[in-house]
Specification:
heterodimer; A: 407 residues; alpha+beta; 10-stranded antiparallel β-barrel; 11 helices; 10% strand; disordered N terminus; disordered C terminus; B: 374 residues; PH-domain like; 2 domains; 7-stranded antiparallel beta sheet; 3-stranded mixed beta sheet; 13 helices; 10 strands
């Protein structure tokens, strides 16, 4: 006997089965660091030999890894999307973007002195970013509908156009305030996203204020201003060539490359904590204790690893660089024998870069963010019911970088 | 062989403890809370191994039902026995890795075909459809970039010598009009001598031709310069640079699309453009040579002079070649020289007279000022 087990959407939900011990205390999100290097190597290799076509399937494999190893109360999240959907989404996005790009090329070539640059500017600086913004919102909808927890689907309401209008409005306000209103801009967009996020029947709500972020933001803003002033000033003083100009330039460089990135990361970490704390699904709430220091440490290790890779590669090139000349002198046929060696070296660089990016950078950042989050009142999950007819197409996925890391 | 498990019905994110039992055609999932038993047919079970756990999900008619079942992997494998290998794989709507690779290979094959055959053909067919007015507009709009590129490459500001030397420009114009008289042109030619150290000449879309100063300095008679100029007029007549631009633009679009960098400008696209430009330029060069011989003959000048010039600038004894040199853009081979000799010999026998008289030649040779050695 085959008993149908799928309820139609019209069915009244059955009474909540309540055999598992109710989780009322706070639960930390877990990040399980399962083996990943093999998948990275295979995915990178297949992407390379298919001239990039495999990247959609590779990205899907990585998402499955990160989703399923993010666990809450003993159950992992699930990514149910497929590479084919991403690929089709990419083709559709191409069909939307290529004509815009083509039109931009045509008007800038044939539009004449005034009209050409104007139209090309409108296409390139207004229409294109607008389309990308809409596609970004749709990409988030795609990712959410392909995310399940305990079998129940997430989804996203709202529209890309509304998201775009919000972006534009707040962009204007941010520009008018000379950038000071940036946290309000970020909050408005985050709020729109969270309030349109659903887990089954549970809709997200957002109660964060932007004001607590102003301190961290203004620190970045003020130092940024100092850098601009210093560089502007030294550019003017440079002709007189004093020691003061030199000092100013050095200080500017130090602030721009050492202090500003740290302050930016600090702002983003504050933002992550604040926005996490403001997110609710009914009575389910979240907190995060992510620290700036831990994020910066990941970045430092990432740069050190990249530096090490380049150093090793440089040493290899230095050692083998003389080989072609030697081989050519001895016997030109030997040159052909050297080709595999150089292909191997290039492959080593590619794989090294892929491994470092995934294992030293993305996974640690993911783990830091996940482990910083605590969820309370999970018992309220009992009231959540799956919603029907949620699948979104993969339009816009092509523009999805996949990870919005804290930085 | 029963096994305990955790079951989610796809409706509520609430686990139910169940007892799982193997049936001949599937799994029997029996909730401990005495709810009705649930049957999963074998063909609807998808397995993912997570450490020591088997994570099962159910796919009906290629759709994920949301139902989930977790049980110890060892117990599940024991329960399934030989049927384990026969379980369908992958997520709903997923293609297997092998199919992806087969289709990628097909995509790469058609791409190679597109690059080697499709795009050149497209460029050749598209050229006659472009009105001359558009080609001239195109030439005008890319000219600043070309000049900027040249300025960067030579490290000096670009100067058109004829602009402040009317007698030199007059001699140049005389040469141009004597050559152009024999050509079928869609619009006026505009020829300028550019003051740089490179030995080069080239034609832009829309009848714009640049001769570089060292050509005048290296040539030992007006006919050698006229031969080179007539060759460039050949490129204008054949609209080669328009074709190259259409080809290059389409190529960067295609490569950009593959790499996901649709806004272009990627290094690979530029590399591809350069390579492709080299690959198809040989027959265009032969065709331009043919036009050169024809125009020189009609003007009553020596069509073989271009060969003398080519031999003079051939790489033997020269050291400072750069990528923008004449030889890089117009590879001179013995074949080309022989072909020019052959064409020049056909129906020959006209009286030869240099295309410019001595005074004119002197004016042209010093158009950029007194001769310098580069």
């Amino acid at each position: 006997m085959h008993i149908p087990t799928i309820q139609r959407p019209s069915d009244p939900p059955v009474e909540p089965p309540s055999m598992s011990p109710r989780v009322t205390r706070a639960q930390a999100l877990e990040a399980v660091t399962a083996p990943l290097a093999g998948q990275v190597l295979v995915g990178t290799f297949l992407t390379a030999i298919t001239l990039g076509i495999y990247r959609f399937w590779y990205k899907t494999a990585l998402r499955r890894y990160y989703w399923r190893n993010t666990r809450l109360a003993g159950d992992g999240f699930e990514y149910t999307g497929t590479g084919r959907e991403l690929f089709v989404g990419f083709l559709i996005a191409l069909a939307i973007v290529l004509p815009i790009y083509f039109a931009g090329t045509l008007v800038s070539l044939f539009g004449g002195q005034v009209l050409g640059p104007t139209l090309a500017g409108i296409l390139g600086l207004l229409i294109m970013p607008a389309v990308v913004q809409i596609l970004t919102y749709r990409a988030r909808r795609y990712r959410l509908t392909r995310t399940r927890y305990r079998g129940v689907q997430f989804h996203q309401s709202g529209s890309g156009t509304a998201y775009l209008l919000r972006t534009l409005w707040w962009l204007v306000l941010t520009l008018v305030s000379l950038g000071i209103a940036f946290p309000f801009f970020r909050r408005a967009l985050e709020r729109y996203k969270i309030e349109n996020t659903w887990f089954g029947s549970a809709q997200g709500s957002f109660e964060s204020e932007a004001r607590p972020l102003l301190g961290a933001w203004m620190a970045f803003w003020v130092v940024g201003l100092v850098v601009v002033v210093l560089f502007g000033g030294t550019a003017m003083v440079e002709r007189s060539g004093g020691v003061g100009a030199m000092f100013g330039a050095l200080l500017g460089l130090f602030l721009a490359f050492a202090v500003l990135p740290v302050l930016w990361l600090r702002y983003r970490v504050h933002e992550f904590r604040t926005f996490t704390a403001g997110t609710r699904f009914g009575v389910i709430t979240f907190t995060s204790n992510l620290t700036t220091g831990s994020v910066i440490w990941v970045w430092i290790r990432y740069y050190l690893a990249l530096f090490g890779l380049l150093l090793a590669f440089g040493a290899l090139v230095a050692v083998t660089g003389g080989l072609p000349a030697l081989a050519a002198a001895a016997n030109p046929m030997l040159m052909i024998g050297l080709a595999p060696l150089f292909i191997l070296m290039a492959a080593g660089l590619l794989f090294g870069f892929a491994l470092i990016t995934e294992l030293v950078f993305r996974r640690p950042l993911w783990a830091l963010r996940v482990r910083s989050v605590t969820v309370s009142r999970l018992d309220a999950l009992d009231a959540v019911v799956q919603q029907a007819g949620l699948d979104a197409t993969g339009i816009g996925e092509a523009f999805d970088t996949g990870f919005d890391v804290a930085g | 062989m029963d096994s305990p498990g955790r079951y989610f019905d796809g409706q509520r994110p609430v686990p139910r403890s169940v007892t799982v039992r193997r049936l001949a055609a599937g799994l029997d999932i029996r909730p401990e809370d005495d709810g009705p038993a649930i049957i999963w047919p074998l063909g609807e079970i998808r397995l993912e191994r997570h450490g020591a756990e088997a994570h099962l999900h159910r796919v009906m008619a290629d759709r994920d039902t949301g139902e989930r079942l977790t049980l110890p992997l060892a117990a599940f494998e024991l329960m399934m026995g030989s049927a384990l290998a026969a379980l369908p794989r992958g997520r709903a709507g997923e293609a297997s890795n092998r199919r992806i690779l087969v289709w990628s290979a097909a995509a790469i094959a058609s791409l190679v075909f597109l690059l080697l055959v499709g795009l050149p053909l497209f460029a050749r067919l598209a050229v006659p459809l472009v009105p001359w007015r558009w080609e001239a507009a195109l030439g005008r709009s890319v000219e600043p970039q070309v000049l900027e590129f040249l300025a960067e490459n030579t490290g000096s500001k670009i100067r058109f010598c004829g602009r402040d030397n009317p007698s030199g420009q007059a001699a140049l114009d005389a040469m141009v009009s004597r050559l152009a008289a024999g050509a079928t042109l869609r619009g006026p030619l505009q020829v300028d001598v550019v003051d740089t150290a490179l030995v080069n000449a080239f034609a832009m879309p829309g009848g714009r031709i640049y001769l570089f100063r060292p050509i005048l300095e290296t040539a030992e008679g007006p006919d050698e310069v006229a031969g080179v100029l007539a060759h460039e007029i050949g490129h204008v007549v054949n609209r080669d640079s328009l074709r190259a631009m259409i080809h290059g633009g389409a190529l960067s679009l295609v490569i950009g699309a593959i790499l996901g960098d649709v806004t272009g400008g990627s290094t690979l696209a530029i590399m591809g453009k350069v390579l492709a430009g080299q690959a198809y330029s040989r027959e265009n060069e032969a065709e331009a040579d043919r036009v050169s011989v024809e125009l020189m003959k009609k003007a009553g000048a020596d069509p073989r002079a271009i060969n003398l010039f080519f031999r003079r600038i051939s790489p033997f004894g020269r050291s400072n070649r750069s990528i923008t040199d004449l030889l890089a853009a117009h590879p001179v081979t013995e074949d080309r020289i022989a072909a020019v000799e052959k064409l020049a010999a056909e129906g020959g026998g006209q009286p030869l007279r240099p295309i410019l008289d001595k005074t004119e030649w002197q004016a042209l040779k010093t158009i950029c000022g007194p001769a310098r050695k580069s």
